[in-house]
């Protein structure tokens, strides 16, 4: 059979070059594996007794499917962090030298860590349950009966059946082959699908492109090639996440700022100032703790985890957590028509004989053609439904050539009732007919109605694989198919249009027919179609054509991949949806790959997001969830980093002026809880439909830095004024209370700005935080607990006045930054 290139990838799937379980010196080679002699072929497969015997010996495919981190890994990741270590040490110190209220920050960290563990554990349970639902179910022949079983139930020697789109789940040797073509590019990077014959090895991780057959399992469990690759790289991997990498960058900068500032503060408070030792330690710790944005990482993890749980309830499996964020940043969505805009099934609406062909004869050809493929695609299944096989078949199939996306047609050869031999092709008319053929005009009219048309053509010779077979085929009949539109596809396309996300429909079908289907669903520019055979090969010219058209037909699998790359070269973030084996390569290269749950095993394996309910309408929910995460984390990150900036700057000012640090840990615990901790939790989980913007670090820091500077300057100004105003016993406590009032009011104004645009619950949230602080100021025992007592009226009102001036300055700075750098 003529081989067609479906992939030109030169990339090798990441994995260990020599897994630990391989003998020393034996390199793992998926192309030329060292194989034992092929086992004898047993058409009926293993017996029940043999399966039980192998299970007892442990010869079973027991590799666990991991869709998330283990509970131990979750606990370790949430507990053993750099900042938890710093805060833990400071907490232990404070437990020995100060009252319990100065150690409250430690209990807050314990609570935060617990929340993070619980939320990620909930997300793990959701992921694991959905992974079981979406797990591949290979067909295994035992005692002569074929049945679907779980991948983990395959035993050594099992006879596993294969069809188009099936993934090879364990290593084995081909026992039966019917034009079987296997793509090993995800393992080897080799471009061409490989024609497999009986006795040839097949590797786990490869998938079937065309044809069918069966193989005998020779390696199962951790001995299989794909399992060896997965030992070091489980499925819980991370796609590129600007949010995660941005937060890591921020934390790195914070560490660099914090270390020298903390050292200076320690020296200043413990050596230079001749104060009570315990009080100096408490104020030193009070200066260091707020520099750490300890809740930022927690809230990011919680936001992602809750997003996974929410989408899981909608039967959406997020195989890589930051894919939620990635889809929210997408500005181009490439859709495969079949299975995405249309449902999987089709109906034969008409058969038109050509060139005087007999209608009854054509029907018999189609009836027998349907029997030629044990694993028919949607088009052939529609023909089988319309012309079912009779119990006593008059014709017999002598040869068959399965459908291939590269060829755009399938073939079959028969021995007819009278003993005559004939060979036939069934596929795309514009591929089988020469350009300018009069029949194409008739087909064009049908395509314009959104109908799909197949051409049945008779091969003059009987060699289906002959290079000129398609060119010399004689047109015999047109088979007109009607596709079933997804009822929710139109609303989903309208959503993307409203969100300024460009939609490109990419299909292997006729471009005019695809455009008509897209037009029925209301896609803007659906009439602007392009036949991919006329698509320029130059990447830059292809990118221009991609941006100028909305619908593409007659696209080969390799072209799908090239089209994704062309769009990415223009700076677009591309999502690709699909369900067929011809979509795998494009799904793999797209920024975000989205597969239907009913799609082939290969597409589900490479996609970051799997829609288990097969509903294209779920995508807006994923986009909305991603926007909620990104927008809200940007908001709360500004809150956390404003605190870090003003804490560092206050420490620097204290060191430079050689005064006591104004705050005890209890003061900043109270302020952090009311102006950051509680509000950030609600803001991080709130609805947010803002379109995701790039440059996370820059967007956060351009607001956090000026806000922190204003807050620190206003607070320190109040502190210095209070130092001149108060004197005598209790002066430091009065000065601290005045400075705390200013810092709280300024921080509340930052919160009020970040909470915009206001809704009733946002206003209520800000008001509740203000009320909480007011209660502390007026309730005597809370005054004593938090060491907050405003003395007199002059200084408290001065503190309020300075805070009001700072709030006005904040408004000016935020508006200037918005105009200067964009919102």
From TrEMBL:
<dbReference type="InterPro" id="IPR023298">
    <property type="entry name" value="ATPase_P-typ_TM_dom_sf"/>
</dbReference>
<dbReference type="InterPro" id="IPR023299">
    <property type="entry name" value="ATPase_P-typ_cyto_dom_N"/>
</dbReference>
<feature type="transmembrane region" description="Helical">
    <location>
        <begin position="761"/>
        <end position="782"/>
    </location>
</feature>
<keyword id="KW-1133">Transmembrane helix</keyword>
<dbReference type="Pfam" id="PF00702">
    <property type="entry name" value="Hydrolase"/>
</dbReference>
<feature type="compositionally biased region" description="Polar residues">
    <location>
        <begin position="1"/>
        <end position="15"/>
    </location>
</feature>
<protein>
    <submittedName>
        <fullName>HAD-IC family P-type ATPase</fullName>
    </submittedName>
</protein>
<dbReference type="InterPro" id="IPR023214">
    <property type="entry name" value="HAD_sf"/>
</dbReference>
<feature type="transmembrane region" description="Helical">
    <location>
        <begin position="667"/>
        <end position="688"/>
    </location>
</feature>
<dbReference type="InterPro" id="IPR001757">
    <property type="entry name" value="P_typ_ATPase"/>
</dbReference>
<feature type="transmembrane region" description="Helical">
    <location>
        <begin position="794"/>
        <end position="814"/>
    </location>
</feature>
<feature type="transmembrane region" description="Helical">
    <location>
        <begin position="253"/>
        <end position="272"/>
    </location>
</feature>
<feature type="transmembrane region" description="Helical">
    <location>
        <begin position="79"/>
        <end position="98"/>
    </location>
</feature>
<dbReference type="InterPro" id="IPR018303">
    <property type="entry name" value="ATPase_P-typ_P_site"/>
</dbReference>
<feature type="transmembrane region" description="Helical">
    <location>
        <begin position="734"/>
        <end position="754"/>
    </location>
</feature>
<keyword id="KW-0472">Membrane</keyword>
<feature type="transmembrane region" description="Helical">
    <location>
        <begin position="636"/>
        <end position="655"/>
    </location>
</feature>
<dbReference type="InterPro" id="IPR008250">
    <property type="entry name" value="ATPase_P-typ_transduc_dom_A_sf"/>
</dbReference>
<dbReference type="InterPro" id="IPR059000">
    <property type="entry name" value="ATPase_P-type_domA"/>
</dbReference>
<feature type="transmembrane region" description="Helical">
    <location>
        <begin position="292"/>
        <end position="311"/>
    </location>
</feature>
<keyword id="KW-1278">Translocase</keyword>
<feature type="region of interest" description="Disordered">
    <location>
        <begin position="1"/>
        <end position="46"/>
    </location>
</feature>
<feature type="transmembrane region" description="Helical">
    <location>
        <begin position="104"/>
        <end position="121"/>
    </location>
</feature>
<keyword id="KW-0812">Transmembrane</keyword>
<feature type="domain" description="P-type ATPase A">
    <location>
        <begin position="138"/>
        <end position="232"/>
    </location>
</feature>
<dbReference type="Pfam" id="PF00122">
    <property type="entry name" value="E1-E2_ATPase"/>
</dbReference>
<dbReference type="InterPro" id="IPR044492">
    <property type="entry name" value="P_typ_ATPase_HD_dom"/>
</dbReference>
<dbReference type="InterPro" id="IPR036412">
    <property type="entry name" value="HAD-like_sf"/>
</dbReference>
<feature type="transmembrane region" description="Helical">
    <location>
        <begin position="700"/>
        <end position="722"/>
    </location>
</feature>
